TrEMBL record, chain A:
Transmembrane segments: 30-51, 90-114, 126-148, 168-185, 206-227, 261-284
PANTHER family: ABC TRANSPORTER PERMEASE PROTEIN MG189-RELATED, ABC TRANSPORTER PERMEASE PROTEIN MG189-RELATED-RELATED
Domain ABC transmembrane type-1: residue ranges: 91-284
Protein name: Multiple sugar transport system permease protein
Keyword terms: Cell membrane, Membrane, Sugar transport, Transmembrane, Transmembrane helix, Transport
Single GO BP term: transmembrane transport
Primary localisation category: membrane
Family stated for the protein in its record: Belongs to the binding-protein-dependent transport system permease family.
Topology relative to the membrane: Multi-pass membrane protein
InterPro entries, A to Z: MetI-like, MetI-like_sf
Compartments where found: Cell membrane
TrEMBL record, chain B:
Main localization, broad class: membrane
Source taxon at top rank: Bacteria
Protein name: Multiple sugar transport system permease protein
Membrane-topology descriptor: Multi-pass membrane protein
Compartment(s) of residence: Cell membrane
Alphabetic keyword roster: Cell membrane, Membrane, Sugar transport, Transmembrane, Transmembrane helix, Transport
Organism: Paractinoplanes atraurantiacus
Domain ABC transmembrane type-1: 77-290
Keyword Glycosyltransferase: no
An example Gene Ontology biological process: transmembrane transport
Keyword Transmembrane helix carried by entry: yes
Family annotation (Pfam families): BPD_transp_1 (PF00528)
Transmembrane portions of the chain: 12-36, 80-104, 116-137, 162-187, 216-237, 269-291
InterPro entries given in the database record: MetI-like, MetI-like_sf, UgpAE/MalFG_permease
Length: 299, 303
């Protein structure tokens, strides 16, 4: 049987209320209250960081939690001046790791997923089982062995030491295999072959465009995973000019223990660091329709 | 099966080359190297000074026995076990309830609530720990202020008896939204006629959710549980970030933190390698065992 639920449905209008459930159904105050409580719980720390980043160092610990102040721009310019704008370098590093890593990982996954979905070849089930083992034992657990191995070849403390391990995503390969099986008809591949297109050419010209919606999801998945990753760069990198923002900010927090004035920078930095990702989320919300069970619902 | 006629070409291998190369270098090789290191140790001859006085020799299973009998290893495993028992049910329970509430469509706040609850997924675990870490400090916490007003002394969230729950709360906060979206997507793909008849017969929303919707999205629940379990076993960022704010989190608070400490603080890469191998094996056994336990057909290869 074909895959019954395609993991993304970006063609559907995003964020609209379900048409099927709006037929004269009464609204329920209980449902509304529970959902609002959930929303309040999730928004509370975000609201706090918005407020706290406007406080001066002395106000941070002494005024009421949600009482805003007027020092946001002072805090930002203090953060700007910290070691010649090191903070912005961290942000750029995060963007580099996540952007380049996710793009490369998506391409690698698309190629492998396509091969697993559309070709018969010797060793196919072995490769597929490898991918599954990779899903079940995520690489982060191996960060220390990865470090020890890369140290042997002198590659630690470079951009590559974080970028290269981020490029392999077994789960991305698994998703791409589902996308390729569901969205690329064999007839289309046949037709491309009849027209004289080689395997690579049909992959680039035909397969990639057909898988586009799924690839955006894999890209976003991997982008967030790399942006949020802490352990790998924390272990691999020693030079703070190479840090992503997660490692940089946790280092600043450590300094706060001896220089409490750093705390306002930590809070302001935390606020600024979530802005790009929140924007990315709200802008691309329609692509977040991941169905993890997609691989399982086929009898 | 869905295969093209081009069976004999080398194309699939070329398409797989980058993935297999990266897989080999960054997943297979590290685990093999860790396996090798875990069986080695340094032999110090003489006073251990000068070149050649320190040589690496085979150690048998010595590193494993040392790792498993380390007085700090078992507590860290139990701690992560307790942490998982709190996080996985709470997070998935919340995610399921929120997804069902959204799917029932009985409220006008669903777009707002869905976006708000999903938002923490955009916040890295380190930043989330940082924000909650400050909110846990008695001088910042709004809860302490409120309880003070009514004359109750709030417990210190970062004290040794509460810190596990405080770390768990961060994970629940960060993970609920993503799982909610996954379950909500699955709920939305249920054909309406499957429960419309039950509704006409007078079944309540709760009965429909329990009897029809939850069984149908079973596969999605299995997958979210699996990924939550795996994420639990690698908890590292949250306790590491909270450490500067609390003296109740030791350097071996979780197994991965112990690996880090052994490798970089004690420079005992052999013990770190042995513990890494143990964690990787345990993760595989637990995740694979979970799939077997629920008899899931997840990851079936035919499509």
């Amino acid at each position: 049987m074909a895959v019954t639920t395609v993991p993304v449905a970006p063609a559907q209008a995003p964020a609209t209320v379900a048409p099927r459930v709006q037929r004269n159904r009464r609204t329920s105050p209980t449902a509304t209250i529970l959902l609002l409580l959930g929303a309040a719980y999730c928004l509370m720390p975000v609201l706090w960081v918005l407020v706290a980043s406007t406080k001066s160092a002395s106000e941070l610990f002494n005024t009421f939690t949600f009482m805003p102040s007027t020092h946001l721009f002072d805090n930002i310019s203090f953060l700007n001046s910290y070691r010649d704008g090191l903070y912005w370098r961290w942000m750029a590093n995060s963007a580099l790791f996540a952007g380049v890593g996710a793009a490369a990982s998506t391409l690698v996954s698309a190629m492998a997923g396509f091969a697993l979905a559309k070709y018969d070849f010797r060793g196919k089930s072995f490769v597929f089982n490898l991918v599954l083992a990779g899903v079940l034992v995520p690489a982060v657990i191996l960060a220390v062995p990865q470090y020890l191995l890369l140290a042997k070849v002198g590659m630690t403390n470079t951009y590559w030491s974080v970028l290269l391990p981020s490029m392999i995503s077994p789960y991305g390969i698994y998703l791409c295999r589902i996308f390729a099986a569901a969205t690329v008809p064999n007839e289309v591949l046949e037709a491309a072959r009849m027209d004289g297109a080689g395997d690579w050419r049909s992959f680039v010209r035909v397969v990639l465009p057909m898988m586009r919606a799924g690839l955006v999801t894999v890209f976003l998945f991997q982008f967030v995973a790399i942006w949020n990753n802490y352990m790998l760069p924390f272990i691999m990198l020693g030079d703070d000019k190479l840090f992503p923002v997660t490692v940089g900010l946790s280092g600043l927090l450590n300094q706060g223990a001896t220089q409490p004035a750093m705390y306002t920078s930590v809070v302001t930095g935390a606020l600024l660091s979530v802005v790009p990702l929140v924007a990315l989320f709200l802008g691309l919300q329609r692509y977040w329709r991941v169905d993890l069970g997609a691989g399982a619902v086929k009898a | 099966m869905t295969t093209t006629a081009r069976r004999k070409s080398g194309a699939p291998y070329l398409f797989l080359t980058p993935a297999l190369l990266l897989f080999g270098l960054f997943l297979a090789a590290p685990i093999l190297y860790a396996g090798y290191l875990s069986l080695r140790r340094v032999k110090v001859s003489g006073l251990g000074l000068g070149a050649g006085s320190r040589t690496e020799i085979w150690a048998g299973l010595e590193n494993y026995t040392r790792s498993l009998t380390d007085p700090e290893f078992l507590p860290s495993v139990l701690r992560v076990g307790a942490y998982g028992l709190i996080v996985v049910p709470c997070m998935l329970g919340l995610a399921l309830v929120m997804a069902l509430l959204l799917d029932a469509g009985r409220t006008r706040v669903s777009t707002f609530a869905r976006t708000a609850i999903f938002l923490p997924y955009a916040v890295p675990a380190v930043i989330a720990s940082l924000l909650w870490g400050f909110l846990y400090l008695p001088r910042v916490s709004p809860i302490v202020d409120v309880l003070d007003k009514v004359g109750i002394t709030a417990p210190d969230a970062l004290s040794s008896s509460w810190v596990l729950y405080s770390v768990a709360n961060i994970a629940i906060w960060g993970g609920t939204g993503f799982n909610m979206i996954v379950l909500y997507t699955a709920l939305r793909s249920i054909p309406t006629d499957l429960f419309e008849a039950a509704r006409i017969d007078g079944a309540s929303d709760i009965a429909i959710a329990l009897r029809i919707k939850i069984p149908i999205i079973g596969p999605s629940l299995v997958m979210t549980t699996l990924f939550s379990l795996i994420a639990t076993l690698q908890v590292f960022a949250e306790p590491m970030t909270l450490r500067p704010l609390s003296n109740t989190i030791s350097t071996t608070w979780t197994p991965l933190m112990k690996v880090y400490r052994d490798a970089f603080v004690r420079n005992d890469i052999y013990a770190a390698a042995a513990t890494s191998v143990i964690i990787a094996l345990a993760t595989f056994v637990i995740s694979y065992g979970f799939l077997k336990l629920v008899g899931s057909r997840a990851f079936s290869q035919e499509s």
